[in-house]
Amino acid sequence: MTRFLKAFVFVTLFLISAGFASAEERWLTLPEPAAMPKPDQSGYAPVNGIQMYYAVFGAGDPILLIHGGLGHADIWASQVAAMSKTHKVIVADSRGHGRSTRTEQPYGYDLMASDYLALLDYLKIDKTALVGWSDGGIIGIDIALHHPERLTRLFAQAANVTTDGVDPGVMTNKTFAAYIERSGRDYKKMSKTPDQYDAFVSQISHMWGSEPAWTKEQLAKITTPTAIVAGDHDEAIEREHTEYMASVIPGAKLIILPDASHFAMLQAPDEYSQAALDFIDAK
């Protein structure tokens, strides 16, 4: 084999192996959500001065899915399809997100939690399991702290309980930057105020600068059966912080999703849904 041919074969094999490696690194990707199934019920609930978009799918013991910051309910499409086979699944757009409106009232996790509790009241749901991602997980922890009687179980993924749990490198992460850009495009398509994305981001950013700020003593009072969940390549939350949360919440189960990041529900939808259902349905 000539030197040129050997070099050609080496480069080809390297490119092929690199292609396989990159294909396996799903935690670097940001897949588009699947198409949302047709809801059995949807509309706008008047809660706390806003119009909150919601949709309901399936029948059975309820599961409330709460999306992360800048996102919207349709991100949960794969989970809705899987979970609604055996459960009533409720999704909604948090205040100012997606199709829901906002007011000039400052954002806070207590306020956002009260929005979801009011939505449950509107839908006449007394108690539910809750799957929350990022801000959704924080909202779930807020409800577990202040209204545990409304929850059966809490599956909190990519959440934090103090601001120093956020990885300082997140703002330079390419996957996270792509999510922010996509969220802006989705906002323009879905929002009733499509030209106010920057104002919305500015408003919610004030909350992110100081919340959440729960102490170890506060978290130790949680009685809701809780799973603290993270992708093993989460770009936004420090692993040590995730492990700390699981250690201080009584009886919390630590679940690490393999080859997944902050956006695990999009990168590993089947595994994510199964992990949540296994925890929620455990006897």
TrEMBL record:
Residues 62-200 form the AB hydrolase-1 domain. InterPro entries: AB_hydrolase_1, AB_hydrolase_fold. GO terms for molecular function: hydrolase activity. Residues 1-23 form the signal peptide. The keyword Hydrolase applies. Keywords: Hydrolase, Signal. Gene3D superfamilies: alpha/beta hydrolase. Pfam families: Abhydrolase_1 (PF00561). PANTHER family: VALACYCLOVIR HYDROLASE (PTHR46331:SF2). This is Alpha/beta hydrolase.
